[in-house]
Write a structure and sequence with these properties.
Elements: E1 12-15, H1 16-19, H2 37-47, E2 51-55, H3 56-59, H4 66-83, E3 86-91, H5 110-129, E4 134-138, E5 143-144, H6 152-173, E6 178-182, E7 191-192, H7 197-204, E8 213-215, H8 219-223, H9 229-238, E9 246-247, H10 266-277, E10 289-291, H11 301-327, H12 329-336, H13 352-360, H14 365-369, H15 375-387
Parallel strand pairs: 1-2, 1-10, 2-3, 3-4, 4-6, 6-8, 9-10
Antiparallel strand pairs: 5-7
Helix pairs in contact: 2-4, 5-6, 9-10, 10-11, 11-15
């Protein structure tokens, strides 16, 4: 029996734009034919995926007449029903068309901003029609090459006004929808506003309806800036704001590579899966595991499906390794050595009594600092579990 064969209970999803990527890059034309949305849904269903995600124009071409739009959506819904696949997340493409060259919600031209609002309202309607529970905002062009073009504070005000506007719209329409903000430090703009997940989490607290808005962190976006994606996800989870997550792989300092999940830095991928699965005892992430990546440009169509299969299998392998690691007696013992259950209650929830008891403790910093923590051994055990030497 293949324990790594995915099924719908794993909640694995792919974007239409991911497996649908034709291999075009800034230096070369497409190397693969464009797959139809129906083909993508049918093949992913065969591979064991739970669902698909989409931008509005991944499905409906920009400017399509209403009759054509309704025909495309009806055909797509029929394929979803036939395969049992779900649309877990949807978004609006506010970065590809030249009209967004100076941004969408932050553009200086109010007519461009009005068009972005118009397009997003239609995309939200489409998302709800397809059953999506989450709508993601990725501000791919919300930035600048020269800050002489606008005061960044004005850009933030415009972003806030836009998100507040769409929250109010969803409430008025009684849409069962949450919004997730996706951070990225740069590319395609020189600098993008709200560059990290931490930036986004603060920004959310300034909104009119912060309870409706969370984050959608992506491995590549934090890693390309040299930051820890595991820490970003942990902060989002601790705040109750991890509404969606984008999984891929990335090498530090490179352009946004969107590589197959787990194909770079297996250690960080392991720690991420351990966090999402809650094997160390923390709360498990219950949402979709979305692979926002694409196959190498070297691949034909068969290679695309090998890429998709690989993303899911690697996640399942890492989840298995994480469960084994956190159940290992030696690992548990090393972690337990650092804990003092009797002392923990004094370190949260101030009272005068606790402050007095803390003052009275006989704590010798020299004695405390002389104690080895055995983290070298702990990390070696992690590597051995990751390599399959221990099980």
């Amino acid at each position: 029996m293949d324990h790594y064969q995915p099924d719908k209970t794993d909640l694995f999803t792919f974007g239409l734009w991911t497996v649908g990527n034709v291999g075009r890059d800034p230096f070369g034309e497409a190397v693969r034919r464009r797959l139809t949305p129906s083909e993508i849904v049918q093949k992913l269903a065969q591979l064991g995926a739970y669902g698909v995600n989409l931008h509005d124009n991944d499905l409906v071409p920009i400017g399509a007449p209403l009759k054509e739009r309704d025909r495309i959506v009806a055909e797509f819904r029929a394929v979803l029903d036939e395969t049992g696949m779900k649309v877990a997340m949807a978004s609006s493409n506010l970065f590809f068309h030249p009209v967004f060259k100076d941004g969408a919600f932050t553009a200086n031209d109010p007519k461009v901003r009005a068009f972005a609002f118009q397009k997003t309202l239609a995309a939200i309607d489409l998302a709800v029609e397809l059953g999506a529970a989450t709508f993601v905002f990725w501000g791919g062009r919300e930035g600048a090459e020269t800050d002489a073009c606008r005061d960044p504070r004005e850009a933030l005000k415009r972003l806030r006004a836009a998100v507040d506007f769409f929250c109010e719209y969803a409430l008025e329409q009684r849409y069962p929808l949450r919004f997730a903000l996706e951070a990225k430090p740069n590319e395609p703009r020189g600098d993008i506003y709200l560059a990290t997940t931490g930036h986004m989490l603060h920004f959310i607290e300034t909104l009119a309806h912060p309870e409706m808005v969370g984050v959608n962190p992506e491995v590549a976006h934090e890693t390309m800036a040299g930051l820890s994606f595991v820490h970003a996800v942990a902060q989002a989870m601790e705040a109750g704001k991890l509404f969606h997550v984008d999984l891929n792989a990335q090498r530090i300092g490179r352009f946004d590579q969107d590589l197959r999940f787990g194909s770079e830095d297996l250690k960080q991928a392991f720690l991420l899966v351990r966090l999402l699965e809650g094997t160390a005892g923390g709360e498990r992430y219950s949402g979709p595991r979305h692979f926002d990546a694409h196959a190498y440009r070297t691949e034909d169509e068969a290679g695309v499906w090998e890429f998709a299969r690989g993303c899911m299998r690697t996640y399942k392998m890492l989840a298995e390794r994480a469960r084994a690691f956190d159940a290992d007696p030696e690992v548990r013992g090393l972690l337990a050595e650092q804990l003092d259950p009797a002392l923990e209650p004094l370190l949260s929830g101030y009272t005068r009594e606790k402050a007095g008891r803390l003052r009275a403790l006989a704590l010798d910093p020299d004695e405390l600092s002389a104690r080895g923590l055995c983290y070298e051994r702990l990390d070696q055990l992690l590597v051995e579990f990751l390599l399959g030497v221990r099980s």
